[in-house]
């Protein structure tokens, strides 16, 4: 076969697979680069949230908004009321238990929800009388309720999600939740949950590895495909 004719024939056979391989590889690499950018954005966001959590606490804003005040560090003095609402939860190393949600009336008469923290199962119905305290915590708007969340067990006072609107109605408070980090109570009856960014997903590094890995496989398969075409043409 004349070399010129051979090269023309080979080129015609290679051009489509080569374009498919290059375009597909470029798309996968672009997705990997985009996920690197997203990773940097998410890491910066998490660092910002951590800084906000541990910032100097302020008074609760008059009209707090989730879009503006999520994780805002606040401090309030007043009365932790009784009784409370109990949300089924668990703590690593301890097991199942309950989040204790109660009304908190500030010294100036404002009423908000307070997430006091965790108690183990045996302490579910232990007495938790009203007490005056200064609380340092963070504003949160938990999004835990969805279509599969069971309704609360009213008879046993067991909730399966923190539902701010429903809890605020029952306890006669604003639908504003402070998650306690510190309390000056002399005899604390709960263990505060850590307020941090661990619950915020950051899977972008996995996506980076996935897209670049797929790009390597794609380009490798393309190279193998081109090699097979050339072998058949020889």
Secondary structure: elements and pairs:
Elements: H1 3-53, H2 66-69, E1 73-80, E2 85-91, E3 95-106, E4 111-120, E5 131-140, E6 158-159, H3 164-171, E7 177-183, H4 204-233
Parallel strand pairs: 2-6, 4-7
Antiparallel strand pairs: 1-3, 1-5, 2-3, 3-4, 5-7
A few lines on this structure:
The protein is an alpha+beta fold. It has four helices and seven strands. Helix 1 (3-53) runs antiparallel to helix 4 (204-233).
What does this structure look like?
This protein is an alpha+beta fold and 234 residues long. It has two domains: 78 residues; 112 residues, no CATH class. It is built from four helices and seven strands. The chain has a five-stranded mixed beta barrel with strand order 1-3-4-7-5. The longest helix is centred in the first third of the chain and has 51 residues. The chain is elongated and about 100 Å long.
Keywords:
234 residues; alpha+beta; 2 domains; 4 helices; 24% strand
Helix and strand run: HHEEEEEEHEH
Gap between N and C termini: 10 Å
Biggest sheet record = 5 strands, mixed, barrel
Number of helices: 4
Uncertain residue ranges = none
Name the shape in a single word. Answer: elongated
């Amino acid at each position: 076969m004349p070399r010129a004719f051979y090269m023309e024939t080979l080129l015609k056979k290679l051009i489509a697979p080569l374009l498919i391989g290059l375009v597909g590889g470029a798309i996968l690499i672009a997705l990997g680069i985009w996920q690197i950018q997203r990773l940097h954005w998410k890491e910066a966001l998490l660092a910002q949230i951590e800084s906000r959590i541990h910032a100097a606490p302020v008074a609760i804003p008059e009209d707090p908004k989730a879009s503006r005040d999520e994780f805002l560090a606040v401090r309030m003095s007043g009365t932790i009321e009784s009784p409370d609402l109990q949300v089924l939860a668990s703590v690593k190393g301890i097991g199942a238990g309950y989040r204790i949600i109660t009304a908190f009336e500030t010294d100036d008469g404002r009423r908000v929800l307070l997430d006091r923290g965790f108690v183990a199962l045996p302490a579910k119905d232990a007495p938790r009388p009203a007490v005056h305290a200064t609380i340092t915590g963070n504003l949160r708007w938990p999004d835990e309720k969805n279509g599969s969340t069971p309704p609360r067990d009213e008879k046993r006072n067991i909730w399966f999600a923190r539902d701010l609107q429903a809890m605020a109605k029952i306890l006669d408070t604003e639908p504003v939740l402070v998650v306690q980090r510190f309390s000056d109570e002399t005899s604390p009856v709960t263990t505060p949950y850590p307020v941090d960014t661990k619950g915020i997903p950051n899977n972008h590094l996995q996506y980076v590895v996935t897209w670049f890995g797929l790009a390597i496989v794609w380009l490798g398969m393309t190279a193998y495909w081109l090699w097979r075409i050339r072998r058949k043409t020889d």
